User: Fold this.
Amino acid sequence: MKKTAVLLAEGFEEIEALTAVDLLRRAQIVCDMVAVEDTDEVAGSHGITVRADCKWSGTDFDGYDGVILPGGLKGTKKLAEDGRVLELVRSFHAEGKLTAAICAGPTVLHKAGLLEGKRAVCHPGAEEQLTGALLSKEPVMADGNILTSRGMGTSIPFALALAEYFCSAERARELARAIVYEREG
Assistant:
């Protein structure tokens, strides 16, 4: 069974993180919410507090197949300033594991040195920070084991792309139909 981690730092964008968690779990993919700070509960950017499944300090990332970085300006800044996070995304990328980010989250991948010459998308307000990336206006962009998305409004397509990456295009279509995101027929 595939296993992924969503990294939560105070100020994360709730919809981006929780949509990924929800749809991946529906696809039978283990998706742990990992608190980057040493706390059980993490406050999102809009005052919604989430109980993390585990803390960074107690997590063995070797068993994970991917890492997901939600946006949220304050949370993204904390992720980008955390050397452990930068090292984790670098090592996942080097090992061919999924490194995914949405909204301002791709700025963390950029800071880790992963987006030079890679196709990527991010929130329009963060595009200037992704120097060297090949930017697009698509809702979701995949380039090898890097998956990026533009923002809260693209949370469902992003989560479905994650499901497709770990399962199959057919499983992602089944999920889309089940949540009435995609019309039948």
The chain is about 35% helix and 20% strand. The longest helix spans residues 14-26. The two ends are 30 Å apart (CA to CA).
